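Example A, followed by Example B.
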Amino acid sequence: MSGQIPATDFSVADMLRPEVIANPYPYYERLRGQTPQFGLLDYPPGTVPGVDSPSPAWVFTRYEDVAGVLKDHDTFSSRDPMQEASAAPTLMLVNHDRPRHTVLRNIARMAFTPKRVESDIAPLVTQTLNSMIDGLLNREVDFMKEVAGILPSVVMTFLIGTPREDYTKLVRWANAFMVSSDFTPEERTQSNVELFQYYVAKVGERYAAIERGEAVPDNLMSAFIKAEHEGYHLTREEVVLFCITLVVAGAETTTYLLGNLVATLQEEPELFQQLKQDRTLIRPFIEESLRRDGPPQRLFRVATRDCEHGGVQVKAGEWVAFFMAAANRDPSVFPDPDKFILKRPNIGRHVTFGHGIHHCLGSGVARMEATKMLEVLLDRCSEILPGSTEKRRQTGGLLTYGLQTLPLILKS
């Protein structure tokens, strides 16, 4: 829940305070009632606080303003000059504009088939979850550490085609890259180097196997290497960057999604019983969680021209930060926005996964993982009880909203 609106003055300069990161929603509420402010100094994924220098950005929190940025790809560019100037690997699709974006997305679609998600990965997710739950029933566990923090990275190793035991590395690399956990500048920089070098090596091994005429597994890495669109193939570096993008964009945000879902079931046990009795409610439950508690908080764009947006004058070259999470709780679009309402009539309007050409390519995988997790919990558990200590939300960065710890008891 959002809590009460802070009584003190609040500006975008205060948005990186730990208490705001832990629960930003009352602050979004205050900002929505004001003229958009300029001056947020925050970091895009991969950049390193204390090393890279952020550019001040306009902050947009109203649904209409956020949707306007998402839809106007010509005025608001996805290219990230700050990330490009840093030592961080550039993210594919996320940081590209048309026409290059169109080519890359078409190739990605060829690799990211529905079969790969539903037929190849879904059974693995169910099997992995059941194996996890076997050892967790009827004792206090930290769900973030023992389930939510593991499953998405295991899925990514399978999806991309790297050794399963490397999932622990993926967890650390994604946390450091997404600027949402506590790392020193040196640790973040070293993590980015390790992440890049790891996939350079793995992709190089796959190319060498293909060149030797060996049969290679049908996973995303092989699919990215072989995919072709109108005569264009990805370069070796682009294959590396696609792998990195999937890991950093998918592992951590899905971890927080899974945690937020289970936290709601623990906080509102009547919802757990409703879902247990009617599995058709699983999808509406996930969508309402994506709206109210969706992990992705904001993205950056850069204005390509002088324009008026949200009642302010934005100059060419200025940064804009648009907060999907704030838009998702705009009461002018979603009445009673802090309440969790199953079967909310207009739930399809939430913007957690973006919109249009930049709609998240991995949204199907995230929804599938969430669905399978809920199915297993509903099958294996009679109730979800709170643990002996309070859950804690992460305070490392404003990019994502999620739990650091979630103590609970899964009753059989």
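Example B, a separate protein, is given below in the same form.
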Amino acid sequence: MHCGVPELDCGEYMFIFSQAWKQLGRHPWRSLLLLLVSLIVAMWSTFGGAVVHENTKARTETLDKQSATAVVRPSSSLLQTRQGDDSSWTDHYLSWSDYDKLASAAQTKGVQYKYTVAESIPVRQSASIQAITTDSTSKASEDKTGGNLTLQSFYTSEAAQVNEYGTYKVIEGKGLDYSNSLAQNVLVSEELAKKNNLKVGSTIKIGNPTDSETTYEYTVCGIYRYTSNPDNALGDDAKFAKDNRNNVLYTTYTTFAINGLDTTDGKGWSVPDLNVVFTFENRSDIDKFAAALKADLPKGMEVSSPTIKHYMQSIEALNTLSETTRIVMIVLWICGALALIGLVLLAALPRSNEIGMALLVGVSKGRIAWQFMLETLFPTLIGLAIGITIGATCANPLAGALNAQHSVHATGGLIWQAIWIGALACIALSAIAGIRVAAFRTMRMFQSPYISDSATSEE
């Protein structure tokens, strides 16, 4: 009975298998090292491949699906000159007429967009709500700063998603109702609510930045908590209380406008900080938009994309992990290959006597080569299978433990790629063992060790 391979029947194969297993058992530590090195290389290659693939996907395919928004805001260098107790800073604010000019420039270049609005002013505190302060907070009067709180309004939820203070979620109560033009509601931070013992339904009173006699009354509809921390957002490290993002009150643009705060003739801190958020169909349109506005941008202003910037910040940890795993994979491949080749040679090279004696008793080189190859294949293939399984199933937990801050999963294509490449590597290693047998010179059988051994056995 033959198994499809010339000259060797099934019984002979079973004998070769059993001899290979016995040989592995005679050298358990060497066999275990072959298995462990194969396992470690396979596991990290699968995990590292998943991380690199996810990072590439995040920076291309997923990035292209991000909301394409752009804003025209002060550059970092201009922001460094800002003084929270100097109302002349409002001279840098863009007005509706400024935005009309910029919008016309973009339309002239054929850039299509939609837009929404965010607008804010500092407001004065009252007995019903006191701002959060620290020892380092400036003691400048509200006549100088416009107030120790900030009232930030949004026209739509899309505007809130690109909030300069960071994204937030409502943890108590409900969010803002952008469709209700009569609502006088605000959201307060959990820190501010705790300081003032505010709850959902509490009423607060705040004052106009330049007219302390003018006040506005709002109902707390919800309490929020920040879920992101943009680079320029300040917390307890803010010099002025109004710049501490935990002192920001959120309301709708409609409420803001009904209270007369969206004014075009304000002075000092009563001039609203108007931020028009442009939305495009394609991310590439942001570059076209920036190019179209370049000649008309006021000094110190720049075009940026809050959503893209926030997204890129969110995958920084993943990118760092990807670069690290890539380096580790290269080092591991080199060291692993050298270790495996060394172990295979260590198992095959010193066995000249064994090969010679087997040939003297009539065993063919092909049969000996099969045994040597199986001695390499068994532990490396087992290590490969276990390593790929661990790498694939533990990719996401391991990435989390390594602070990837992003989901990482081994795709089916990646797993199959690891299987085929790993299997080819195992075959290549076993071929080295087989070549050792093929390279054995038959003439060595007639040298004294073999002759004496043979003669002794005949006697």
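On Example B: The chain has two domains: 10-61+317-454, 76-299.
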